[in-house]
Write a structure and sequence with these properties.
six-stranded parallel β-sheet; alpha/beta; homodimer; 237 residues; 45% helix
């Protein structure tokens, strides 16, 4: 089999590059100490993330006009705070908490793996996060993206085809010259159906210690790697 | 006077960051040697660049639908080649020559100045170049952009307001939190009218040794700097 001529790597971000759950829990526990409260931030993080797909789905279906993820996150947060006894948080505190998504920390192999992959390919995000979220996160966590693509610049939330195809087009590339990298089978299945190459990198604790899905590659992807360093090595090979 | 709270710097690219004229002449002279031809590449570069504003104007006015700069450059190139006795260039040669805009070289102070400004502010392009052009140039010339904004992601060619305002909005910032950096008075006048801060950095040989415009700041900009290092120092001050 000839190797695909991959010019660019498109990365899912939440879960694939950064550990959103541990990052939210970490900031939450600091809030517990600072405010003298006792919120279960693991439950909080899971509930918040659980509102993510339904919120985007209302945009995907056209039930509401284009809305960036910062706004969807904030609406979910405002719904969630009373359930955790945090309805007293004022506007600056809510805004700061909502921006925890701009301060997510990468998995240990991510930054080094990205730097290595960047030597030979364009590395761009293809995330449902909005531009400022991904740009601020990149600066906060030293992620060396060549470009932030995905939802906001294409106005399509994954897995809508436009999110992948318009991202490839903006790089001046055909779909098959791009490889979608994700820890989620559903993301890769959508990309593969559009002609992109695919790379699965499992993040088996993304949803905590009891995660029972996305533990293994469920399809015949172009690459299956243990982490970003392994993926970089396979791409060089 | 209180200093403006500038969170992001938006950079014009052609002429401000990179020396398009010398870059095109340099590649052209190499073509002369390789192909045994004798084209005057200074004249060629000026003629090619001279077709830039009229080509974008047809998009700005709506006379033609949204079209990226790579395509406009290529149309201008195809018009120009016969005038210089180069109508025999085949498709790969034309494509390669057209992509000289992806391989422009920075002014000597640009990369170091950008790296320094990036320490304290978001640095993004606000160029009429399309995404792949600016991304490929960044990789070719080691320009450490946080983000590529401007024409293609906003679908507005400068000086249309949307090119500036949508770029600021994607960074999650108000216009006054952004500073447009350019070697061109017209670009800064447009940005200033929309509420952005402005920084003029003269590039007095952008159009060659006889350049007689954009030599000095013609308005009361927020910053006037001799080069990117000077601008970085003023921003830190």
């Amino acid at each position: 089999m000839t190797k695909p001529d991959i010019r660019a790597l498109l990365f899912d971000v939440f879960g694939t590059v950064v550990d959103w759950r541990a990052s939210i829990v970490g900031e939450g526990l600091a809030m517990n100490r600072r405010l003298g409260i006792d919120v279960d931030w693991e439950v909080f993080a899971d509930r918040w993330r659980g509102m993510y797909q339904p919120a985007m789905e209302r945009v995907r279906t056209g039930e509401r006009p284009w809305t960036i993820l910062d706004v969807l996150h904030r609406e979910s947060l405002d719904t969630l705070l009373p359930e955790f006894g945090l309805d007293h948080l004022d506007e600056p505190a809510r805004d700061r908490l909502n921006r925890v998504w701009h301060r997510l920390r990468p998995w240990p192999d991510a930054a080094a793996g990205l730097a290595r992959m960047k030597e030979t390919r364009v590395i761009a995000t293809c995330s449902n996060g909005n531009v400022s979220l991904v740009v601020n996160m990149a600066r906060f966590s030293s992620l060396p993206w060549d470009m932030v693509l995905g939802a906001e610049v294409t106005r399509h939330y994954k897995p809508q085809p436009g999110a992948y195809l318009e991202s490839a087009r903006m790089l001046g590339l055909a779909p098959e010259q791009c490889c979608m990298v994700a820890a989620h089978n559903s993301d890769l299945v959508a990309a593969e159906a559009l002609g992109l190459a695919t790379a699965f990198v499992p993040r088996p604790t993304e949803y905590g210690p009891d995660q029972d899905f996305d533990l293994v590659a469920e399809n015949d992807y172009t690459y299956v790697a243990t982490d970003f360093i392994d993926l970089a090595e396979q791409l060089e090979g």
